[in-house]
Amino acid sequence: MKYISTRGSAPALDFEGVTLAGLASDGGLYVPESWPRFSEGEITAMAGLPYAELAVRVMAPFTAGSLTEEQLRALCEGAYGRFSHDAVTPLTQFDQQHWLLELFHGPTLAFKDVALQLLGRLFEHFLEKSDRHLTIVGATSGDTGSAAIDAVAGRERVDIFMLHPEGRVSDVQRRQMTTVLAPNVHNIAISGSFDDAQAMVKAMFVDPALASSHGGRFHIGAVNSINWARLMAQVVYYFAAALQLGAPQRKVAFSVPTGNFGDVFAGYVAAQMGLPIERLIVATNVNDILHRALSTGDYSAGHVTPTAAPSMDIQVSSNFERLLFCEGGRDGAALAEQMRGFEATKAMQLTNAQRQGAAALFTSARVDEAQMAQAMAYAAAHYGEIIDPHTAIGLHAAREVGVDPAVPVVTLATAHPAKFRDAVERATGARPALPKRVGDLFEREERYDSLPGDYAAVRDYVTARATQSA
Ligand SMILES: *Cc1c(COP(=O)(O)O)cnc(C)c1O
Question: In this structure, which topology does domain 85-111+230-428 adopt according to CATH?
């Protein structure tokens, strides 16, 4: 499988290349040159497979040429063996029409584990093969950081530097990062906002001083959802859920709590591969750039409003570019132009083709703080389920949008309620306990350094500590 950039001028790469590169050199994101498509018979034959085996079937077309099926199977068995539920992503029924897909049974309690447990193993496999070392630099508003750190802690050939905005992540989220004491893990608390931290990370990817350090052997890698391998791993659970509900003979709809448009784009990919998806509901909080873009064509960024669903508090959704490319005639030059305009003015209009293409599969809904809290209270009262604030946004949207009653609607449960227990307690009166697998999180020693919001200080910190032995 070959991958091309959404902005048309970076070289095409194979799966190994896109996994290690993250962002394309022209500033675009990598997408497969064409979508692999399964026949109805092939999808039917996937019913009942164990999760890791289903993952091999769904991902093999994307990794072809870079991994043998045996190698892919070993990586999937390692990644999904770490989940606390042996179905990995179990489905529970709320009522006649509504279902919950529990994506939080991984080590750090959010859906990001599903992709990052695999990505950590892919990094190790490819780096070993090419005898290289990778320095991962990332910024997190909470969930990506802990999932990425868990996935690479103690692994050879990888260092990870994770920036979080000091004092702006929950205590559970911070401790899940800072109590990992493996020598290749470096936590940095930055004074400033998540956007400040994110801007510093982006600057490092294009800094010539970094590229030439360590005798030109400094390789920088990405763990956020601009990395194609993450989206690919998320396609699998759309298949898992739909198969259980009668696909491919029956259509299924999904409601997805959305921030960076990674998770819901994986649903789009599943549909391109032949999974009969009736509708993808893009559920946003009050940071509603995607809702405005999908409902009126206006993609313009404002200021971030902090909410009780912080993993969705973003204004620019990186992965939306992948949809605009795929539905805008796959014209890299035109999209590069459109994105340059957006980067200059922080606003753009979708073309008619992009709007109509998106409308064929996506519906959006904006959910405010009161509606989110009501959805948590409703789930507790009517279904006896305690759900987290992000999941509540998905559930509210699922019930509001009005899908044909004959079509099952699956809400993606993106985080365990204990990860956001203050907000859950405010809405439901119940304080969810941390699951056993996170252990004595509050007794463990923490280790991190605090740095000012100053780019040079952060860059020097990284270059002084990165290993880059190969
Ligand atoms: C990251 C995250 C989201 C948003 O997912 P995207 O792929 O960025 O759209 C939603 N909920 C939780 C709990 C998350 O951690």
Answer: Rossmann fold (3.40.50)
Minimal-distance CA residue to ligand 1 atom 1: 311
Q: What is the pTM of this model?
A: 0.96
Is 112 among the residues known to form the active site?
Answer: yes
Q: Which pLDDT score, from 0 to 100, does residue 468 have?
A: 60
Atom index in ligand 1 nearest the CA of residue 259 equals 9
Label each residue of the chain as H, E or C.
CCEEECCCCCCCECHHHHHHHCCCCCCCCEEECCCCCCCHHHHHCCCCCCHHHHHHHHHHHHHCCCCCHHHHHHHHHHHHCCCCCCCCCCEEECCCCEEEEECCCCCCCECHHHHHHHHHHHHHHHHHHHCCCEEEEEECCCHHHHHHHHHHCCCCCEEEEEEEECCCCCHHHHHHHHCCCCCCEEEEEECCCHHHHHHHHHHHHCCHHHHCHHHHCCCEECCCCCCHHHHHHHHHHHHHHHHHCCCCCCCEEEEEECCCCHHHHHHHHHHHCCCCEEEEEEEECCCCHHHHHHHHCEEECCCCCCCCCHHHCCCCCCCHHHHHHHHCCCCHHHHHHHHHHHHHHCEEECCHHHHHHHHCCEEEEECCHHHHHHHHHHHHHHHCCCCCHHHHHHHHHHHHHCCCCCCCEEEEECECHHHHHHHHHHHHCCCCCCCHHHCCCCCCCCCCEEECCCHHHHHHHHHHHCCCCC
391 C-alpha vs ligand 1 centroid, how far in Å? 10
Q: Which residue ranges make up each domain of the chain?
A: 85-111+230-428
pLDDT score, position 470? 43
* Ordered mean pLDDT values, 10 residues apiece, the chain (470 residues): 96 96 88 98 98 98 98 98 96 97 97 97 96 92 92 94 91 94 96 85 84 79 89 98 98 97 97 98 96 96 89 88 97 97 95 97 98 98 97 98 96 96 96 90 95 94 78
Pocket of ligand 1 (CB under 6 A): 110, 112, 143, 225, 257-263, 311-312, 390, 414-415
Please tell me the distance between residue 110's alpha carbon and the centre of ligand 1 in angstroms.
Answer: 8
